[in-house]
Design a protein that fits this description.
Blueprint: E1 3-21, E2 24-38, E3 41-47, H1 60-75, H2 86-90, H3 97-115, H4 119-122, E4 129-131, E5 134-136, H5 142-154, E6 160-163, H6 170-179, E7 185-188, H7 198-202, E8 212-213, H8 221-230, E9 235-237, H9 244-253, E10 258-261, H10 263-266, H11 269-281, E11 286-288, H12 295-304, E12 328-329, E13 339-341, E14 351-352, H13 354-359, E15 361-367
Bound molecules: 2-succinylbenzoate and magnesium ion.
2-succinylbenzoate is lined by residues 55, 135, 188, 190, 238, 289-292, 315, 317.
């Protein structure tokens, strides 16, 4: 698989409704798409870096810079046996996992397309139908939150996650539990609390949550160990886990009992599979997180979610929850049972709509 050229594009799409987390509010997404041309076959990836460095250090700008100035020189002219060789090639670059993950995923797509098989099968996926939950941003009012949850449950989604922050946590959770006593419910704090807040977080335990996602510092595994000791509810780590070594430390130290997996956060399929296998051997369930992706990133999340240890519903949802019109054909759709069926067609199995992608591109750079 010879890497002939890479095209970077920044597309812009407005969200149907703004998405608010403890670290900010997004109304318009800027997304960096990577198209990798290999022996005449194009593979696609999406860089999940945000507009600003508020979830993680990377941004669209830093990723563009790293892809053009450091990743491309390592890939240019290379002839890979398989996409599994890409991640080791990039290892000399420290960090910048979202930039690495975008191009690595594009090359996995290209390999699957060259072999004429679905990406999820190439990865070793064991189920074609994946279970889906939703992530609901912080809402202005409890009524709006309840109405949103009602709508998502009616659409079939199997698990509800709400974003919380100090001052907006116990009240919405209590309200949802009163209204929906039996649903699978969880919260995501995106690092909004300190260890000292543990007595307050303990109050959430009255509402039998499936898990509390990333309550403490984005790079602070140690404080989560202390917190998990004080809580019965499982902690799920997201922001803290960038490498297999982080995952091993978190598991061995008891910082979490569940891990949220994001391709971009860990740097691609090769590290994701390694962390997945480690978690499987330690009986730590994983699920696939989301980053408000366009259809390209969504398609990759679907493929990843077919791996054996993805036993909990992920934040992988229909295109229509976020976009009036997505950039892939067909769009991602969810069944009335709250599942998504991984496609039978080669690669990611959803065709990028080049005309639409070009039309909404704010910039483009071809690396040769
Ligand atoms: O923490 O999981 C997160 C979105 C942007 C940044 C971080 C997160 C999220 C989500 C949205 O929760 C998940 C989705 O794409 O639906
Ligand atoms: Mg999260």
């Amino acid at each position: 698989m010879k890497v002939q050229r890479i095209t970077l594009r920044e597309i812009r799409m407005p969200l149907i409704t703004p998405f608010e987390t403890s670290f900010g509010r997004v109304t318009d997404r800027r997304m960096l798409l990577v198209e990798a041309d290999t022996d005449g076959i194009a593979g696609w990836g999406e860089c999940v870096a945000g507009e600003g460095p508020f979830y993680a250090p990377e941004t669209v700008e830093t990723a563009w810079h790293i892809l053009r100035d450091f990743i491309w020189p390592l890939l240019k002219g290379r002839d890979f046996e398989s996409a599994a060789e890409v991640w080791p090639t990039l290892e000399t670059i420290r960090g910048h996992n979202m930039a690495k993950g975008a191009v690595e995923a594009a090359l996995w797509d290209a390999e699957a397309k060259q072999k004429g098989i679905p990406l999820w099968k190439l990865l070793g996926g064991v189920r074609q139908e994946i279970a889906c939950g939703v992530s609901i941003g912080i809402k202005e009012t409890l009524e709006e939150l309840v109405a949103t949850v009602e709508r998502e449950l009616a659409a079939g989604y199997q698990r509800i996650k709400i974003k919380i922050k100090p001052g907006n946590d116990v009240t919405p959770v209590e309200r949802l539990r009163l209204q929906f006593p039996r649903i699978r419910l969880m919260v995501d704090a995106n690092s909004a609390y300190r260890l000292d807040d543990w007595p307050h977080l303990k109050r959430l335990e009255a509402y039998y949550l499936m898990m509390i996602e990333q309550p403490l510092g984005w790079d602070d595994i140690f404080s989560h160990v202390e917190l998990q000791r004080r809580l019965d509810t499982p902690i799920c780590l997201d922001e803290c886990i960038h490498t297999e070594e982080h995952a091993r430390a978190a598991i061995e130290l008891g910082a979490c009992r569940i891990i949220n997996m994001k391709l971009g956060r860990v740097g691609g399929y090769t590290p994701a599979k390694r962390i997945h296998d480690l978690c499987l051997s330690k009986q730590i369930p994983v699920w696939c997180g989301g980053m408000l992706e366009s259809g390209i990133g969504r398609a990759h999340n679907i493929a990843l979610s077919t791996l054996e240890n993805f036993t909990l519903p992920g934040d992988v949802t229909a295109s229509r929850r976020y976009w009036l019109e997505d950039v892939i054909d067909p769009e991602v759709a969810v069944t009335p049972q709250g599942t998504i069926r991984a496609p039978d067609s080669p690669g990611i199995g959803y065709a990028p709509r080049i005309d639409r992608i070009e039309a909404i591109s704010a910039r483009k750079e071809i690396l040769v």
